[in-house]
Design goal:
Blueprint (H helix, E strand, L loop, with lengths): L6 H52 L2 E6 L1 E17 L2 E5 L4 E6 L6 E2 L4 E5 L2 H44 L4 H40 L2 E3 L4 E6 L6 E2 L7 E6 L4 E9 L11 E6 L2 E20 L2 E11 L10 E18 H5 L19 E7 L2 E12 L3 E6 L6 E7 L3
Antiparallel strand pairs: 1-19, 2-11, 2-15, 3-10, 4-6, 4-9, 5-8, 6-7, 8-10, 11-14, 12-13, 12-15, 13-14, 15-18, 16-17, 17-18
Helix pairs in contact: 2-3
Length: about 400
């Protein structure tokens, strides 16, 4: 049996195929158009970004810091040495061999305590010799007194006999002269006795000085003698020990430059650091300022003495310290960085320079609308990092401190 073909159905299928082919062609056109648009947009955007980057790279980059309020501490720096508050050098006043040394480093001593002893043999003999001279002089006084009594009596008899005409004038004068010589001899004996007594006292004093004693209560910082050593007391006294009264209270002596001495006063607060504890700052106070100048290589300085509390015993005499003395404090001041006072933007070609500030003013530049604007300000105290300013400037203004120019 044969199948029958429907002509109407065949025509419909052809129409569908033609419609699909037409749609596919239109879709491909749309895709090509969209791709073209995207490519064009990407190219334009790339060109715009490149131009923008070139413009941004050719423009200077401003570095700024905001104006702010802060306390300004004006300081003076100086360097010096830490010393004992009352350091005493103990020396030998007599010559001899050291028999004993009774103390060592860091020993605590009391006033009058024996530190060392020098051989007293020779000085003890000198004392005995001086004592014998005193005894001899005392006997001489007695002899002179007896002689004086005898000559006075002879003179008195001669004067009575002369009145009676029993002796000559020559004999009378001889008797008077003998009495005068006896008086002089007695005075000489008394002077010799005083001299002998003084020599005895001196010998006893030298003998007592064979014992080296502590003049103060304190601690032994240094010992420069050993048993058996011979010390010679000549024009310069040999130093045997160095004592400090109290290591819990020290002093710091610093040299202040003559340009800064006018800003330092007694009682000013300070702090200092030492190399042994670089991360720690120790408080201090200016105790006194010396008026005597020091001159070294044409540099004039004045010595200031600062108090040092050392309850923890961290600090030692002889340490080098760097002190910072506060000479003035300004509370809640409007400040800018010191770099802002030194900054000047690069000149713009063809633009006139800004007018110069008055002699009593400085110029800073504030970033306004992306460009530096010059502002004249009056400056006050500075701590070396920031400076107090006054003028057409407010807290938060971006003050220029540097500029980064394009390569």
């Amino acid at each position: 049996m044969r199948e029958q073909t429907n002509p109407q159905a065949s025509t419909s299928m052809d129409d569908v195929r033609r419609t699909l082919q037409i749609g596919q062609r239109k879709g491909r056109k749309i895709v090509r158009w969209v791709v073209t648009v995207v490519v064009v947009v990407a190219i334009v955007l790339g060109i715009w970004i490149a131009l923008r980057r070139r413009v941004s790279q050719s423009a200077p980059r401003w570095v700024s810091e905001p104006a702010r309020r802060a306390d300004v501490h004006v300081t003076v720096s100086a360097t010096g040495k830490i010393q004992g508050l009352n350091t005493v050098e103990v020396g030998a006043e007599v010559t001899g061999k050291v028999l004993r040394v009774l103390v060592d480093y860091n020993d605590l001593v009391k006033k009058g305590q024996v530190l060392a002893e020098i051989d007293p043999e020779q000085l003890r003999a000198a004392v005995e010799e001086a004592r014998a001279q005193v005894l001899t002089s005392t006997a001489g006084i007695r002899n002179a007194e007896a002689t004086l009594l005898e000559t006075r009596q002879a003179r008195d008899r001669a004067e009575e006999q002369a009145k009676q005409g029993l002796v000559s004038q020559k004999d009378l004068e001889t008797a008077r002269a003998a009495a005068a010589r006896a008086e002089a001899s007695l005075a000489s004996s008394k002077a010799s006795t005083s001299l002998a007594a003084a020599s005895l006292n001196s010998a006893q004093s030298r003998l007592a000085k064979t014992k080296i004693v502590a003049p103060i209560d304190g601690i032994v910082l240094a010992r420069a003698v050993e048993p058996g050593q011979t010390v010679t007391a000549g024009f310069q006294t040999p130093i045997l020990f160095r004592l400090a009264e109290d290591l819990t209270k020290l002093s710091l002596r610093v040299d202040i430059d003559e340009a800064d001495i006018g800003r330092v006063v007694e009682g000013a607060q300070a702090n200092f650091t030492v190399d042994a504890y670089p991360q720690r700052s120790f408080p201090s106070t200016v105790r006194s300022l010396h008026n005597e100048p020091k001159s070294s290589q044409n540099v004039v300085t004045y010595e200031a003495v600062l108090t040092v509390e050392n309850q923890e015993r961290l600090l030692r005499p002889g340490m080098t310290a760097t002190a910072t003395i506060t000479s003035q404090t300004v509370k809640d001041a409007l400040v800018v960085s010191n770099a802002a006072l030194r900054f000047a933007p690069p000149p713009v070609r063809g633009a006139p320079p800004p007018p110069a500030p008055r002699p009593d003013e400085k110029r800073v530049y504030i970033l306004r609308a992306g460009s530096p604007a010059p502002v004249s300000v009056r400056v006050g105290p500075s701590d070396g990092h920031v400076t107090e300013v006054a003028g057409d400037i407010n807290v938060g203004d971006e003050v220029l401190v540097d500029v980064i120019l394009p390569p």
